[in-house]
Amino acid sequence: MAHLQLEAFLPYRLNRIAAAVSQDFRAVYGPHHDLTIPEWRVLATLGQFDEMGAKGIGRHSAMHKTKVSRAVQALEERRWLKRRESEEDRREEILTLTASGRKAYREIVPKALAFERRIVEELGTEAGPFLAALERLEEIFRLR
Amino acid sequence: MAHLQLEAFLPYRLNRIAAAVSQDFRAVYGPHHDLTIPEWRVLATLGQFDEMGAKGIGRHSAMHKTKVSRAVQALEERRWLKRRESEEDRREEILTLTASGRKAYREIVPKALAFERRIVEELGTEAGPFLAALERLEEIFRLR
DNA sequence: CTAGTTTAGTTACAGGTGTAACCGTCAATT
DNA sequence: AATTGACGGTTACACCTGTAACTAAACTAG
């Protein structure tokens, strides 16, 4: 019978590694601010783009619109972002970070980059080819 | 201000890629049998080991015991596996695939391997270094 | 102008998930 | 043998998620 070892099976391994990385990454922002991943993604997107509607955030961070909606609500309650009605289209709500939101962003980003750098360093010479392969995978699965 | 591009951030990319791979892989077993990922993992583990308790399955497939418990229930209702009380330890339930379970397993495994092979082929010369990097990551995050 | 369609965003609902509490059994100590 | 703690497995609960239905606003075509 054709054999399959789960522990050597690519989808399984990718899932586990991604989960472990996310889990570890949570330790980066967890202690100070207790964010969920969707909240972090919204924060990161708004930190990157200053102004954006929920739709745009969803597109950029690859999240379902309900996930974005809830993450935005949560961040709003935390007073890390505020909404403003778009003038061209009153359905749309333009979102921006508040001062506290930008402060949190500025605190988290260096830690996030350090976290990433640490992984890349531990990969050593394998890092380059690995990142190149990730790009190929993104093409293969049309993620860009 | 230190900059972070979400779309270039490793944890984000890994999560997206893993999700896309799982999603695509679902198309492999989805059409015929409509399995969840936990159910597939239990099936794969029992296909690999013939007999095992829920605890062992959880350890081997990196799943929480409640997830295993529910996946086992689902597969039992499908009549793809059966339970038998262990004779050494009456707390433990030894699980084995039924004939239908083994049949499904034999149908899915070649497709799963083909799916994996296709990805590796599309990676071409980058496949080797990529898989090596995955092993490094598994070490770094103590997944083995 | 108006009817029908599309779009930005929210929400009700159903399903999946982990935490914690639980049941029955085993093992160690007395 | 009785007690205590550990263990395999299940379940109640709370939380998160996507689907689908919804609201309000915008667009399109008569």
TrEMBL record, chains A, B:
Cross-referenced PROSITE patterns: HTH_MARR_2
GO molecular function: DNA-binding transcription factor activity
Gene3D superfamilies xref list: Winged helix-like DNA-binding domain superfamily/Winged helix DNA-binding domain
GO biological process, one term: response to stress
Superkingdom in the source lineage: Bacteria
SMART domains named among the record's database cross-references: HTH_MARR
Domain HTH marR-type span(s) in chain numbering: 7-139
Protein name listed in UniProt: Winged helix-turn-helix transcriptional regulator
Organism of origin: Microvirga aerilata
Lineage: Bacteria, Pseudomonadati, Pseudomonadota, Alphaproteobacteria, Hyphomicrobiales
